Amino acid sequence: MEIPHLRTDDDKIVNPEDQGDVVLVCLANRGFPGDWKLGMRQGAGGALQGSQSQEVLEKDGHYSWSSSLTLPANQWRKAGSVTCEATLKDQTPVTQTLETEQCSQ
């Protein structure tokens, strides 16, 4: 079994004025099999959220996915962090965390 490599794409974070929304995008690739689930958690231990794309079968036989989560800007700041999480049945989840302080305001 191959575990997806995760990255949170800072270039995909849109952080408009305080009254706007923040869009977070998590990308996972080189996964196998294709039934991994991808989502995001706000802060420590929050519920899994976000919309997941359909898996894409790449030419090398591995799969790729993306997940996006839109939050009001003030909620993003309060969360402190968002963790992208990939899970497959009873396997240990693969995670990557993005701290709010890592992103330009």
Automatic annotation (TrEMBL):
The Immunoglobulin C1-set domain extends over 21-94
Name one matching Pfam family. C1-set
Q: What is this protein called?
A: Immunoglobulin C1-set domain-containing protein
User: From which source organism is this entry?
Assistant: Esox lucius (Northern pike)
What is the organism lineage in this UniProt record?
Eukaryota, Metazoa, Chordata, Craniata, Vertebrata
